[in-house]
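User: Can you fold this complex?
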Amino acid sequence: MNDTTLKSIAKSLVPENYLALANDARLERDKEIKLLLEQRKLPTYGWSDTMIEYFVRELALLDSNNFPSRCGVGEREGRVICDLVRRRHYNFSHGIGRSGNLTDAQPKAVGSTIMANLTNCLVRDWIRSAGIPTCARATVIPVATGMAMMLVLRTVHAKRPAASYVLWSRVDQQSCFKSILAAGLTPIIIDCIAHQEDVPGVAIKPFATDLPAFVSKIEELGADRICCIVSTTSCFAPRSSDDVIELSKLCQRYDIPHLVNNAYGLQSTYFSHQLAQGARVGRIDAFVQSTDKNLLVPVGGAIVAGFRPDTVEAVAKLYPGRASGSQSLDVLMTLLSLGRRGYEKLMTERKEAHAMLLEGMVKLAEAHGERILPCRNPISIAMSLASFEATAGRLEMIGSMLQKRGVSGCRVVSTADSKTIDGNTFLRWGSHSSRCSVPYLTASASLGMEPQDVTNFLSKLDGVLRKYRTKDKGDGS
Amino acid sequence: MNDTTLKSIAKSLVPENYLALANDARLERDKEIKLLLEQRKLPTYGWSDTMIEYFVRELALLDSNNFPSRCGVGEREGRVICDLVRRRHYNFSHGIGRSGNLTDAQPKAVGSTIMANLTNCLVRDWIRSAGIPTCARATVIPVATGMAMMLVLRTVHAKRPAASYVLWSRVDQQSCFKSILAAGLTPIIIDCIAHQEDVPGVAIKPFATDLPAFVSKIEELGADRICCIVSTTSCFAPRSSDDVIELSKLCQRYDIPHLVNNAYGLQSTYFSHQLAQGARVGRIDAFVQSTDKNLLVPVGGAIVAGFRPDTVEAVAKLYPGRASGSQSLDVLMTLLSLGRRGYEKLMTERKEAHAMLLEGMVKLAEAHGERILPCRNPISIAMSLASFEATAGRLEMIGSMLQKRGVSGCRVVSTADSKTIDGNTFLRWGSHSSRCSVPYLTASASLGMEPQDVTNFLSKLDGVLRKYRTKDKGDGS
Amino acid sequence: MNDTTLKSIAKSLVPENYLALANDARLERDKEIKLLLEQRKLPTYGWSDTMIEYFVRELALLDSNNFPSRCGVGEREGRVICDLVRRRHYNFSHGIGRSGNLTDAQPKAVGSTIMANLTNCLVRDWIRSAGIPTCARATVIPVATGMAMMLVLRTVHAKRPAASYVLWSRVDQQSCFKSILAAGLTPIIIDCIAHQEDVPGVAIKPFATDLPAFVSKIEELGADRICCIVSTTSCFAPRSSDDVIELSKLCQRYDIPHLVNNAYGLQSTYFSHQLAQGARVGRIDAFVQSTDKNLLVPVGGAIVAGFRPDTVEAVAKLYPGRASGSQSLDVLMTLLSLGRRGYEKLMTERKEAHAMLLEGMVKLAEAHGERILPCRNPISIAMSLASFEATAGRLEMIGSMLQKRGVSGCRVVSTADSKTIDGNTFLRWGSHSSRCSVPYLTASASLGMEPQDVTNFLSKLDGVLRKYRTKDKGDGS
Amino acid sequence: MNDTTLKSIAKSLVPENYLALANDARLERDKEIKLLLEQRKLPTYGWSDTMIEYFVRELALLDSNNFPSRCGVGEREGRVICDLVRRRHYNFSHGIGRSGNLTDAQPKAVGSTIMANLTNCLVRDWIRSAGIPTCARATVIPVATGMAMMLVLRTVHAKRPAASYVLWSRVDQQSCFKSILAAGLTPIIIDCIAHQEDVPGVAIKPFATDLPAFVSKIEELGADRICCIVSTTSCFAPRSSDDVIELSKLCQRYDIPHLVNNAYGLQSTYFSHQLAQGARVGRIDAFVQSTDKNLLVPVGGAIVAGFRPDTVEAVAKLYPGRASGSQSLDVLMTLLSLGRRGYEKLMTERKEAHAMLLEGMVKLAEAHGERILPCRNPISIAMSLASFEATAGRLEMIGSMLQKRGVSGCRVVSTADSKTIDGNTFLRWGSHSSRCSVPYLTASASLGMEPQDVTNFLSKLDGVLRKYRTKDKGDGS
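Assistant: Here's the predicted assembly.
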């Protein structure tokens, strides 16, 4: 209701002085919204659900499908026939972007346009505050990380049509590798450095990246024929983050684009620091992360961000046609709900959960005659299962025993597995390196984990390991 | 968002000319709301769900429990701890009324106050348009019809403390009778006139009221000792409506208050006409109806209305303390959703369903050697079951067979039943008259009934009656 | 989906072993519901919103208005025409109770019946755990406290029709007093004991009740002519709780029914203890409390509870007709959401908030040359304003200054006010006693108050008091 | 609640015989769900919202993020931090697909898996019933049409890596053209046939496709170097559908893949027939359509369908990583809500709206000295504006005047415009052909259009054209 409407409320309905107090509160609320629209920065404190819905609904009412008298003769008028669907999208229907550009304004959908653009502004502000202050542009892309990587690869390739090789530091997760194939490019797999075992006097290599191998491949193929280098930060232990800083320097030196797969990396300031530093001393064209893992929204969105606007904008321009606004809406509501303080709290709690998980797993490893595999990974932890493999040899049983006890996300990797994707064979799949030699299980402390989850997991893991040993054959019941 | 907020939307978020068009639509919407608040009349056409929710939410934001910065040190601050509960009440929490009066404004709850008062205005407008143009005041009371009757009885008694008798034209439905007992008053039951059977040459008496019996009771007890007369319009066949007009004249003549139990009577212009006429030529202090049956909302509310403001206001003033606003909200949303046209459509469809049902039951009665019991009842129809009783004598089986086939609301009344409530015995309970002599079943065409319901019912009834006859003992399977 | 449905999920839709794990989780969930239905006790830990909605929706599906094929020919078929209304009531529509009894089962509404009865069971369990272990029966009545008191009064009077006096220990809140008038009974006001000022050597009287005055009134009127005694626990300071224990003894001695207005008393174990003890050593027929204040739901419901089933059941039987199920639903969802632990936490936090508020107000009083008025009240605190009245004489200004700063619920009571309700005059209205002589303001620490509310209030109060003094005339800006 | 739970409902909560009836209804509901899961076909009649939500929520409860006791130590556990976001996704969070394949089952998300796979089955059934009975496979892809085309192009190219040309029958809508560029392929634009003007004795060519030009291009480039041919069915008038049947024959003859951009073509049986015939007599590898335009859901999804499973499956396999399940959910809810009959009704109404719109525009054209441009287009209609261009020359004013009056979707195309996309120049952009010579406006009768929309539009268009003429310079106010 605008100011005129409010004034029309008859005294017969409510006394004027009561109304005046209520109007003060109304103005206070609108002031906060005004501030958001003007500054386009994360609010310090999270908004209440009521406030978020108020704002989001007001935006949706600016879209033509919600106009009281409308007369649509186009081929797409934002009509939604199922009421349940209409409701769950808060009356948004037109999606975002236009044929020409994912970030273009839609004349028919002013509210959706504001919603999407504001979300991108808030996302940038959030990335900056998460440890990457030099982030220049960020865009929510309504596809998950793999597809977003593919789009960025295509964008980069469009500028270097003759360069079809992608140098990729191996990480044993299909999605990123497949994005290279889906983009029609040729992956060159650079195997990870296997971590040095606890040889006395030999320091643990903190990074996974085989830099010399990268250099020799570049020299071999020629920089001009390399579309880009793809590095990875967040990943399963025992793989560590790639040495983003050194790779960035390399890319700058050879003038090769550099994409960073930062899938769930915004959860840790350690990764953010790598990115900020890499961009300062070298070249990073874009870094890509998922919305679900970093912002705890349903799967389906990714954020493409960069230190200069160009690559991010080029991705938006490459995007053919309109797109779902659903992911932007999820991100917007979540960011408003958390506020800066809310996100900081999540980050702190995650860090504490990681410390707690690490401590517990160290103890457990000791008790079972195993060890934590050496690596620098602020999220994922790997514990060896060497003695268990020796005993029974059916390690996958441990995984399914855990699953039956409600544990999800715990990966058991035996040394025997290998995998072929589209003609590319990965020895010791799951270990990120063909030189790895020990079976292990991993557990992660990711955003939203609670202390109780850690305690439960440790106790269940202990129980399962004991049972497995006792039964010898581990029938898993 | 107020006008200033909208202007603060940066051009970087959306182009100005696009925003201007969206703002036009926004102003159009607010204009409609302004009109409602100024005129306080039913809109001609129903509003969309989006529009209704927009309006209701804006109202709720005027309540102090939704103020962004609030500091509550009272004993009741409208806090709602369960989010699901908060949501389903659209953030309304303070209820309506104050200790002093059900219709008083609450300083803490401006939105709830407007909501409740506006609803009462719309309800009055709706009653006027439903055939009672002289209705002067109407109030939604958040209790069902029985309790509402009890409140009105207590209000009337408060003004006539020495008069403790209530003359009540018998209707075999417990709730109204119990409201007299609950009010602490003494009911005097005036048995209904049993309808003349089809004696050739004898006209059917259109009304149920035994007027001479009323007169003689008044003379016997003395008008001063009679708290009021309670008559009933809508009821189950074979009872007809009371002769509201003649009773009104009687009440005027003897200066006795007159309450009409119009439970689901607003569905039929026939009843409305009785009320309007009764008030014109005689005395009606208040008429009471349910919100659920006349407006298709969940059970829980009633409307007390009158032709002068005094009794309705006195009821509101008698009400001790605050009350639920939930029923007013249901009524408000429903009236806005229907609009004048929507309600008219429902009325027309109901009338058509009744005609269809009557026609079908006449045919069915004929086919089974029964007849439709004579009465003037625009909603409920009674069909005799004389030959069925003769056959097997277990008529209740017919009811349960229908129920098993998904038929609800069909009442089978055998002549044998009688019932005692708090010391008062009702011979042939269910027949509204101790002189009734035929078993029957009833079916109603009430608001919201669809043609398909009629067809289904007729076919199922036919099937059950056939089966009952065939099996002779009717085992109901 | 029942077990057969689940088995029908084709392998082409999802692999069997995946489905098996999901089914385990499903069984776990259903087990918890089974436990609730069997034990009918508060769960120890609160349920998630998802779980609550799952349960509530399943119940609603048992009501006939939600049957896939239904054929309704009654006068009330639970049809809901406005979709928004339907949704907000979770598809419940039939209300609770039947003509005969508020707690009777409805054949058409099995889900509503279970919902209402289960809620009553959980409420009893909650009251027991809140410090009244001997509570025998409790019923949610879908009217607020005042109306509920009125119903109980009418119920008691129905058994003692010749007894029309209600002995009432004065408490200056209109609703309870009006309920006596609305019930058609005659209130006898027993003025409260004014608290002894800090006369050295004189102990503060912990209770408000003028027991000797009660005794003399009983003797004067005769116990047979007294319908009941109404006492009050929770109330605004400087009134303390009535001496429920001694009044209970009195009632037992004279065989007079005893009703306790425990409006928001379940928040404090102090009041609960009074009630439990009173029933042990004397007579308490029923105690009445609001759902909104004790359970943080929207205004509209009350709980009538007793130490023997009879009075509570009699109230349910007196209730004429059906009633709203909305309040029971709010209570059910809230109790499931909190669980036993959740409510305990709320109680603890309230107690802490009270201690914090008291400490702060003591300091503030000292700083402004005032004092906390002596009384035993675990919720409300009163601070004198004697020197402020002396200065400017417009104490109400303090109230409106606080209101403008967002403070609600702080009552400023000047000694000058008096009030007449229906012919009964209350000297020094607001002070609960005609012998009170000091102006004051009150603040309460009620359920749901947060530490931040206390801090905010204290700081705002300090500011307002300073400003008022400075400006002398306190223009309130 | 499963069967055991139901049995645990104590008699003290509800009588057994009442419960039995409710259970019958419950079984009836579950039977319908069982049928859906077993047959995986569109229900004949649409389901109620209550039923749809019941089903969808039951599915979501099978996902691990909703398990009562869960212990997640993975990097993605489906946690959703913002309650509003959780609610609007009905507790679905894991998305669909796995790294390996968009249609793979997720062990952690059984409900999401069933939901997505079932949706695909229903979509296929719906396409079959919409006039393409030979459709073998269909998959909802959670990207809009443009991106879906790009994915299909990349999939086709992956099998023909040496073939980089895409022969594309020009249609002046950016999104499809951009999808070729985004896929990294080289578009060969085949200009459309301009329709013969009303030369007496010359029949109007029903199709837009310049078949001889296609043949000569194939001969020129060589079939092996052509990745595929892209044809279009639904488009803006005055362009007609491509001659899908002849192009299919051509593709078969030359062994070239054939993709059909059927963006909003499922609305018209005319297009469906083309596709079915094309596949019967020639080659169609896949046809792509939007979910928003054909099913009236929010923008964001597309359906890739084919007459053999292979291409559709290959697209799903190419998709790198997981994806949003939001679009599948929208489609599922909408299809269940409509049922077969509901969709048929929408189709019929659209056809009627088109006839009505055409008739009205023919009259309008006549009145203003213009004509309807000849073409075979069952959705979009183009009316010449030759005389208007002659008068004032600022045709875009007509568009903005319409917009100000609430008309959206009406495109005004002047002959002067031309556009360059990524180096490709389109003469007379908007006319689909460089040989077109007349300015015009278009209006469409698309799904969901109501008769009132047509009437409103015609009246507004008439008004605007008159005003434009009068003012001569048409200042648009």
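Chain B has 16 helices and 14 strands. The interface with chain D takes residues 21, 24-25, 83, 403-404, 406 of chain B (CB under 8 Å).
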